[in-house]
């Protein structure tokens, strides 16, 4: 890059950051709603039949006046913290505690700031306070992640912008203060280059408790050709079950692609090597390695960062999910042989965006073939799935795990008025109260381009003043 062009880019980036709107955070409210699953969802060592969904409202004061934004997220037991000493309820109670820690820190930042400025001022303090109470980084990030989404929704509504236009113009004033390996201009270039698709392919989650024959039924009903297959951590048992899955998919002549998710269940690299060896060498898996896109979070998060993948990382693409604890996770993982990291709104929208900029920068520079993957554990019909889908679509990701639409019966326990409001505002996304409108393996997302963070529904419909 020439000196003159470099100066111009930097001046443009600085101007965009300086012009981003500032606001004052006034209030944060939330409530919970129970969600009952229509069938067991087994991942890792946990089996879930119910969970609590968080609904959160943020109120801000901008130069445009008062604005309200909202978000929602499932508080999944035994995912954010897998400590065996904790019960399912303990891990959810920990998330509630994180919310109160984060709320106090966010509200104490009482001067006008940008959206990312507020996050950057509070993020490290929240993680540090949680660490003092033995709360892992993944769980500690849950509070800021929720507040940031609701605040962004309010900010976009205040300025009449949809999320795609707002992020492309860097309304949040995203910069490199938390990612010193990135340059500000690389972040700006990434945001400006995003062109979201009009539809997203669904990667159907196949949990450990799901019957093999349901794969064919799923294909007949939805046309899904992308599948996310859960692993138990036992290489012999996993290979045997994968052989049945491959046989079932082949029996229906599905031109499928798959990802594998171990949810931290593989005890060490030897066990993982045993599984990958069978996938590469056994006859029943002859075509499977070509159809396998990546393997997600095979090792426990602590072991992950002391265990280089070595030759395994050359033969298979691996990604980090539960192992993401802070902004330095992706570079650390890349050095150990990982190629990707998951995007999830429950882990933080700004982490996702900056990791996307990293992946693009590393790939374009020839440093590594890196990528962002779209995963889903906490997204239910309504605000949650819409905001997470908008984020992954902004990245330009073609397919995404969307598991809430089949483990939960559509909008589940949501009030009729709320369901009607979402279905009316987003007829391309939903088939009605039953949930996502999946056709030919995908769903349309054009209606997510409305003012706010991917929601055409007034927050007051979902979060009344009493919340």
Can you walk me through this structure?
The structure is a single chain. The protein is an alpha/beta fold and 467 residues long. The protein has two domains: 3-190, 2-Layer Sandwich (Enolase-like, domain 1); 194-462, TIM Barrel, CATH 3.20.20. Helices cover 42% and strands 19% of the residues. It contains 19 helices and twelve strands. It has helices at 3-19, 88-108, 115-131, 137-140, 142-158, 163-168, 184-193, 214-222, 235-251, 269-281, 288-291, 301-304, 312-315, 329-335, 349-365, 383-395, 404-407, 416-425, 459-462, and strands at residues 23-43, 46-62, 65-75, 199-206, 226-230, 257-261, 292-296, 318-320, 340-343, 371-374, 399-401, 442-444. The strands form two sheets. Strands 4, 5, 6, 7, 8, 9, 10, 11 and 12 form a nine-stranded mixed sheet that branches. The protein has a three-stranded antiparallel sheet with strand order 1-2-3. The radius of gyration is 21 Å and the shape is globular. The N and C termini lie far apart (52 Å).
- CATH fold-type name of the largest domain: TIM Barrel
Unreliable runs: 1-18
Percent of residues in β-strands: 15-25%
CATH superfamily of the largest domain: Enolase-like C-terminal domain
Q: Please, what is the average pLDDT? A: 92
Radius of gyration: 21 Å
CATH class of the largest domain: Alpha Beta
What's the tally of helices? Answer: 19
CATH architecture label of the largest domain: Alpha-Beta Barrel
Any idea how many domains?
A: 2
